[in-house]
Specification:
Elements (H helix, E strand, L loop, with lengths): L1 E6 L1 E3 L24 E3 L1 H19 L5 E7 L5 H10 L3 E6 L8 H16 L3 E5 L10 H9 L3 E10 L5 E7 L2 E7 L3 E5 L12 H6 L6 E4 L7 H7 L23 H18 L2
Parallel strand pairs: 1-4, 1-6, 4-5, 5-11, 6-10, 7-10
Antiparallel strand pairs: 2-3, 7-8, 8-9
Helix pairs in contact: 3-4
Amino acid sequence: MRILASFKITPDYEALRPADWTADAADGPETRYVRRILNCFDESALELALRLTEALDGHAVAAELGALSIGGPEADGHLKTLQALGYRRTTRVDAGAALDFAPGVSAALIAAFVRRVDRSDLLLLGSRSGPGDSGIVPFLVAERLGWPCLPQVTDVEALPNGRVRATSAADDGLVRATLRLPCVLAVGNAAVSHLRVPTLTQRLACRDRPLDVVGAAALEVDVAAGLLREAGPASLEVIDRSRPGVVVGGATPREKAQALYEEHLKPLLEML
């Protein structure tokens, strides 16, 4: 069984200053100084893929694990970490353009890679990936491949016959489905939300292993034409999450407690 987990590296938008969001929407906010992170859904998908591979080995089912990321060199460090964790195939697709708000192009690249290069049986993706958070990429990939797609997956189990049993969240509870391959799993609020950390020995063992880099042209995907068909954002602005606060005066803790009671708590108690 060939398993492929696809993920996206994004800037930590929570770390941006409000002034950075004043940038023109064509260029996006200034993100060069913030760290690059995995979103929680992609991280869950990567860890579930690892656990599924280990379980398949226990059932004597041969499984080979691969990871795919679309973007620039900022993903290379994460791909090297995945190599240390046991991912045998680690590939980055260089689209040559920002695809934050282009789910159709992202899906076309993933589907083309699976169909032309990787020949995977099982594809795991996070159900959402910032900053666009469209939530439609797994479905678009499945449509292009002609595979079924199970959304909001929270867990995946290995079966001895080479199939998998996936648990997904539905409106009326959890649903467990036994799946034939090939298929796409869109990972949602999984119980496993953190990717394990490799040891130094694991990192040193694969430090000389190269990463595969594939261009969009090699996958026969016209990124420029795809971007023209995408409806990007008209503007970007930060959400104001600030809350009002009051500084309690007083030189000593006693005075501060007295001021807190007299000025704030006492009026509320009198209203009861």
